[in-house]
């Protein structure tokens, strides 16, 4: 549990730190950001981080782990489209229109938002059970995952720092708390 959660924390920091921060409101900026290898690596960091958190939560709280898995399942298709789809479209002359169509599709946005909110709910379950500072920071970090997308790069990187600290601290603090019993 310590290793997956600690690695997830590092990956959540790398996600915004490695992501190219070009002006995506211009064709050249969108092409530069989305067409770069750093775009793919950064988004992969988040996707792998979600999976590792779900694995780690199995030893902390199984109900939270299941809820987190559901959130991850709802979120990953959007991340995959963002990562690989936008990367593939980066050199199209209409990349801005394509990106807008993909990002703001009502079904995709709804699934993405529900996924992130479900992961936040799982993190809140962890905090409610453990009642420790690292568990509360973990819940705050996942509670802020959706809103941070509306902030500037510095805020998004700060969110990565918060999640990294919360995941690593929780990984090393959670061992002192016994896992919740599995319901019959």
Short description:
With 184 residues, the protein is mostly helical. The chain is built from 9 helices and no strands.
Structural class: mainly alpha
Radius of gyration: 17 Å
Given the C-alpha coordinates, what overall shape results?
Answer: elongated
Q: Please bin the fraction of helical residues.
A: over 70%
Number-wise, the strands total 0
Describe what you observe in this structure.
With 184 residues, this protein is an all-alpha fold. The chain has nine helices and no strands. It has helices spanning 2-18, 27-34, 37-57, 62-89, 95-103, 106-130, 133-143, 145-148, 153-173. Helix 4 packs antiparallel against helix 5 (95-103), helix 6 (106-130) packs antiparallel against helix 7 and helix 7 (133-143) runs antiparallel to helix 9 (153-173). The chain is elongated. The model has no long low-confidence stretch (mean pLDDT 95).
Provide keyphrases for this structure.
mainly alpha
List the helices and strands and how they pair.
Elements: H1 2-18, H2 27-34, H3 37-57, H4 62-89, H5 95-103, H6 106-130, H7 133-143, H8 145-148, H9 153-173
Helix pairs in contact: 1-3, 1-9, 3-4, 4-5, 4-6, 6-7, 7-9
């Amino acid at each position: 549990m310590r290793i997956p959660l600690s690695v997830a924390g590092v990956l959540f920091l790398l996600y915004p730190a490695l992501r190219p921060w070009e002006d995506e409101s211009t064709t050249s900026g969108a092409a530069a950001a989305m067409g770069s290898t750093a775009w793919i690596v950064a988004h992969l960091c988040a996707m792998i981080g979600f999976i590792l958190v779900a694995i780690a939560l199995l030893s902390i709280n199984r109900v939270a782990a299941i809820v987190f898995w559901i959130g991850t399942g709802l979120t990953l298709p959007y991340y995959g489209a963002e990562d690989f789809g936008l990367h593939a479209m980066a050199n199209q002359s209409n990349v801005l229109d394509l990106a807008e169509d993909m990002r703001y599709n009502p079904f995709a946005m709804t699934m993405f938002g529900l996924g992130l909110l479900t992961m936040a709910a799982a993190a809140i379950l962890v905090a409610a059970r453990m009642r420790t500072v690292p568990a509360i920071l973990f819940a705050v970090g996942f509670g802020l995952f959706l809103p941070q997308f509306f902030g500037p790069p510095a805020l998004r990187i700060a969110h990565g720092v918060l999640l990294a600290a919360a995941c690593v601290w929780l990984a090393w603090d959670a061992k002192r708390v016994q896992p919740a019993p599995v319901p019959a």
